Model the fold of this input.
Amino acid sequence: MTLFRFALPFTTAIACLAAPASAQSLTPQEIARVDGIVTRRLASSGVPSASVAIVRGGKIVFARAYGKQSETMPVPRDDAPYQIASISKQFAAAAVLLLQADGKLSLDDTVSKYIPDITDGDTITIRQLLSHTAGLQDYWPQDYSFKAMATPVSPQGIIDRWAKKPLDFTPGTKWQYSNTGYVVAGLIVEKVSGQSLLDFLKARIFKPLGITAYDQDLAIGNGFPQGYGRAAMGPVRPVTPAAPGWLFSAGELSMSARDLAKWDVARIDRSILSTEDWKVQETPVKLADGSSNGYGLGVSTGTTSGRRYVEHSGEAVGFLSENIVFPDEKAAIVVLTNSWSGNATGAIEEAIAKAVLPPPAADTADTAALARARAMFGQLRTGSLDRALMTDDSNYYFNQVRLGDYKASFAPLGKPVSFVQTGKTRLRGGFVNRNYKLRLGKKDFVIITYAEPGDQGRYEQFLVAPAVS
Done:
């Protein structure tokens, strides 16, 4: 199951979850912005409904549902359980970590110790299953229900068809998303715990956190959101769910956005799992060559807009979901939608993050460098260059002809209207590279700089060129 997206007009919203001021409640203005973000994205994408939850200050401060959740649910409910699909993987990984803490298994145990007849099961570890580095072929890479999904299947049936094929690569040498690996991991949890995966999760995670979770195969019909889809620009239609058994530990859970946010709070608080086990889940697994794409055990990690995140998305038949946690800000955003067409889910999450989270703290070095770059441009604009600020190579480049061209180009345009850094600071060739976007009057320019390391590093390069529109 990969991700695609698109879908229908929506209706009304219901009230947000009350929260004390100490939880950094949303202001009326912020609530209005969130409402506007969701309603506009639903209208523009055609997605029928969305359920949104926001964590701020380590508390759930907002939970609201919008639109048409099914043909029989014209009024949206914020407690309605959406299918969260692959977001379920982090719960399966957590189950393994809990069993390891119980002393019943190890992440570095081989698969063959628990499940027979898996291809090269004596070399694949449980850690590799959970990090998508085992080499087992994915059984559902499509963004649609393939023919076999109309017929019920068991986890063993998936294993027999896909986990006994030749591996796509030697375990630990590559990363490739594999729902098959998670089915194997789920069966290991059941064998070791003596319970169904869902029962184990209810006892060890959901009940302690007050989460109501369902097997998505049973979260169908009256009282549950309906999945929708759209072919190209055709009409939005209800879709037929997959036959039972196709998600299992790869994505079997249904819950509300509010309940998923309770798990995000547990991640922020380091409850349920030990601090060390949370760290293990969130630590990117390295391949044999030492590289990593940021994926841990059931979660992706990285930074966006200067914020560290722990994230996973999900796709089920007729549903898309997004769950992202910003640990350093003690914040999280959950967006669940009931269409697997369109890109509303990610667009809503990104816009809400900008609307309700504080801007990331500016890097002091970048802030100082921005001031220096602006001052340097001012010199070039007027033709009065302090050559002590430039390296020998840069002084060589800025001969009198080029310096005259810069003055002739920019002096008539006046002082900068805006001057901002774009992209990330990086090292190249022993220099610190920072790029900027400059506006003079109604014209935009790009500035590419290389400077010696340090607060007073001389410029090796300071080139200005028209921006390409």
Summary: Confidence is low (pLDDT under 50) at residues 1-22. Residues 159 and 184 are 7 Å apart (CA to CA).
